[in-house]
Structure prediction request, 383 residues.
Amino acid sequence: MSFDLLLRNGRVIDPAQGLDGVQDLAFKDGKVAAIGPSISGEAAEVSDVSGLIVTPGLIDLHTHVYWGGTSLGIDADDFARSSAVTTAVDTGSAGPGNYAGFRKHVIEPATARILAYLHVSFAGIFAFSNRIMIGESQDWRLLAARDAAEVAVSDPDTIIGIKVRVGRHASGPTGIHPLTVALQVADETGLPLMCHIDEPPPSYEEVVDLLRPGDVLTHCFRPFPNAPLAGDGTVKPAVQRARDRGVMFDIGHGKGSFGWRTARGMMAQGFAPDVISSDVHALCIDGPAYDQVTTLSKFLPLGMSLPEIVRASTETPAKAVRRPELGSLKVGTPGDASILSLQEGAFELEDVLGETVTTDKRIFAEGCVIGGKWFREAGKVPA
Prediction:
């Protein structure tokens, strides 16, 4: 059998299939064609990835990639090349009033796959910069339930959920009520919801009490105030109840939403995140979030194993967006794979409060395959 691309001798970590070992991986016609210890056959291109890690294409469940359309957007393809992310899920950069532009000018031309949570606010997150910071959920007039429902069902291939932001900064005087509106849109369309939370009000507990199975609470390891931990270091009962009924907890690092103290406390209580995401945008791409692989690396010193970390950026986010085929390297699935390295040294990793932890291991991006073809920075992976 002949293939378009054959990766040889990589450490394949595919939690969805229970795989962790040296395997070959072959692609043909944009899909995974074969996986096994020693694949026979010819290929148009063969790359030896010995010593490197091969995973299903990394999914970053929280990004902002409406470049040029919003002040917080970054370029999705540049991000894919530098962070080995093959699927970027944009979380509410666009609302029903400007989604058409997002699709035409960003999603369709991109090589990286872009999926979207549609914002319930008419123009999405429209005033987010170093100089201007206006919470879009603060104004009732912008909450566009009918428009959001119509647009969400118009593009089921790309729009995978509804987004809302609540908290002192995002919703201010409207409090928790934008979440109520967004939940109605999610219910009307049959889609899951992702909810941002920042400082109170509303409280962390009030927010998670309203979320349904399959909904995502992002910024789940945020620092005080509105941390998931009580003052005595235990997980707040409402947080545990939400997990027990199927709410998903996503890191969403960003500029202000990951604290080492919170993370240590949650992990000590046995409460690991379901999903690890970067919340990369224009104000955190140069720190403290940087990218997806840097965010993933922060969970090595917190005690998560490499396969657990990979699962939190492949299999689980694929389930969250209802695209399980994106979270595995099973034969016949889309031909996306991420090539990573795990390097040893002394690496400083900061949180959003400026606390730095030095770890002896760090994950680096070495390249990615999208649709069965290399999509990488020049010279990153040996041919």
The chain has a mean pLDDT of 97. The longest strand covers residues 356-370. DSSP finds ten helices and 15 strands in the chain.
